[in-house]
Design a protein that fits this description.
Blueprint lengths: L2 H8 L24 H17 L2 H14 L4 H13 L3 H14 L4 H13 L3 H13 L6 H14 L3 H14 L4 H13 L3 H12 L6 H13 L3 H14 L4 H7 L6
Helix pairs in contact: 1-8, 1-10, 2-3, 2-4, 3-4, 4-5, 4-6, 5-6, 6-7, 6-8, 7-8, 8-9, 9-10, 10-11, 11-12, 12-13, 12-14
Length: about 260
């Protein structure tokens, strides 16, 4: 597994939090003392999280759960916050509460999968991603498929990763992480023309990164298109002159 695959595979997508008021699932329904107030505090918690005010966000979310312990969106949101704070036991407990109270809460299933993958519990994570896409009402299944692919890269299981990235791209053809991963996987399997095609698709839908440009340079070097190598190298030098990738190009290291 190459360095670039590992680098791109580490950053897993956490989709935005939205309200989910369902009380379905395996847990008994709880009659909240103040459900409207719980919803308000949950949304305030999201706002403070987005601003980086984690202490106030935690206070609001804890208050929301005191007002309504059966609110899956509050469990999901506080799970994300505890994950951000490095409190993994608390994060897992709340993700589990969210998906047990509402198994069809796909965003929580996806977020739980991201968390489990970060804990190197890859098989458990995959089950959560697949559970997320089982829901026909989930409006962003491409992100769960992409996360499943990123997690498979970390395992590593490149065959399974490719299958998930293809599913993600079938839904959203411009999904940039999946395009880059498919380009990298194609390069690693010596399918350089396919790698070029994925890079060109990436180029038409996203801003360049040093990693993407370096992959483009390596690919064109394998295809012996030195004009393209020079063009991509010039772009890398002009946009990211101090990057590690620029240093590799300067050293002539085009196969690392």
């Amino acid at each position: 597994m190459s360095k670039n695959v590992r680098k791109w595979g580490i950053l897993l997508l956490l989709v935005s939090v939205t309200a989910c008021n369902s009380t379905g699932g395996t847990r008994p329904e709880y009659v909240a003392p103040d459900p409207k107030a719980a919803e308000i505090n949950m949304r305030l918690g999201i706002n403070y999280m987005q601003r980086g005010d984690y202490a106030i966000a935690l206070e609001k979310l804890q208050k929301a759960l005191k007002q309504n312990p059966n609110l899956p969106s509050a469990h999901n949101t506080i799970g994300l916050l505890y994950q951000q704070l490095g409190k993994n036991d608390e994060a897992e407990a709340h993700f589990l509460e969210a998906v047990e109270r509402d198994p069809d809460y796909s965003q929580a299933q996806n977020n739980f999968g991201v968390f489990l993958c970060g804990q190197e519990r890859y098989d458990e994570a995959e089950k959560r991603f697949l559970k997320a896409v089982e829901n026909p009402l989930y409006n962003t299944p491409q992100f769960a498929y992409e996360n499943a692919g990123l997690c498979a890269i970390r395992k590593p299981d490149t065959e399974k990763a490719e299958a998930y990235f293809r599913k993600a791209l079938q839904i959203e053809p411009t999904l940039t992480k999946s395009l880059l991963q498919m380009a990298e996987l194609s390069y690693e399997s010596a399918n350089y023309l396919q790698a070029r095609a994925y890079i060109q698709r990436y180029q038409s839908s996203a801003n360049w990164t040093p990693q993407a440009l370096y992959l483009a340079i390596k690919t064109e070097n394998k295809l012996d298109d030195q004009n393209a190598v020079a063009s991509y190298s010039l772009l890398l030098r002009s946009r990211f002159p101090d990057s590690d990738e620029m240093q590799l190009v300067n050293q002539g290291l085009l196969d690392s």
